[in-house]
Amino acid sequence: xxxxNNGGNFVRVGHRxxxxxxxxxxxxxxxxxxxxxxxxxxxxxxxxxxxxxxGETSRFYxxxxxxxxxxxxxxxxxxxxxxxxxxxxxxxxxAGAVEEFGPGLIEGVSxxxxxxxxxxxxxxxxxxxxxxxxxxxxxASVQAEDFSSVEFCGMVGPKTIWLCHGEGEDSVWxxxxxxxxxxxxxxxxxxxxxxxxxxxQFVPDGEDFYLMLGWYEGTGHFLADFACMKGTLDxxxxxxxxxxxxxxxxxxxxxxxxxxxxxxxxxxAADKLGGEVELSDFYTxxxxxxxxxxxxxxxxxGFIEKDPYDGGDRIIQxxxxxxxxxxxxxxxxxxxxxxxxxxxxxxxxxxxxxxxVPLQENSTAEHLLP
Length: 370
Prior knowledge:
Strand order of the largest sheet: 1-2-3-5-6
């Protein structure tokens, strides 16, 4: 199975790198902080691909979608908008019929592509449901019922892991797609400032897994606390705190550290995992590829020179390393102060650019679309 960056904005399957084409619509006109990818729009978009062998870019198929791309065994699981609601679908590679799973979001796909997780809610703000899909058919569903919410964590083989938010406590559960059995892996320790955990990272490690949780407060979504948990598959009440070496030395105080797996059963806190493609100074600076947790390659110096708040007109929406290149989606923007909400600045989207940048020092960007 030759799939890379599954669940990203640019996903490689074989020698093709797939992405959503928003050049002719599909993005909202206005977005706070210029983050246009997180808002659902019922506009026609299309899936395109870049062929690494020929260097050509082609249309794959049309759909009304948004969000990440998830590849299964022989097609994509995608989220789209119908009648104002997010719906999820399976689009086969060939000419087969599109499968619809109803209102909801595709949350993840297993490494082998046979299993997928699908989150939905009954009605507007009703009971939350997490469903497990095997080869494009729903095989099990978990309703919140006694819990106030269910949240997908990740997948390990046929096993789906999720977090249940209950009254006064959070618990982590497992569903085995082969035995169709459910198991509680343990409770998340409660404490002051720990009223509602958010899942920040899920890291499988053989029969074990690690889970980074963050607790936030206020309208500014400020980090109040974080914790790394370790659990063991198929082992009831195995969930336990796992302190990380260096977890209090992180450079970003607004977010939990990342879990870096350094070997079987060996983890530590890190600012970078390796593979990230970012600007050197948030909105501006060089385009940098972190080829390791501690090493960086400057791909393009001065990639974005002017902050959009100070009159700049470009904001990166997605930048991901796939194969031997970085793929970058940029929105061209202008300030829209009349749409600001308090201290949160708004921007109007005026166009998009798709770039491919070889993962080499001082590279030259190639435009993917005409």
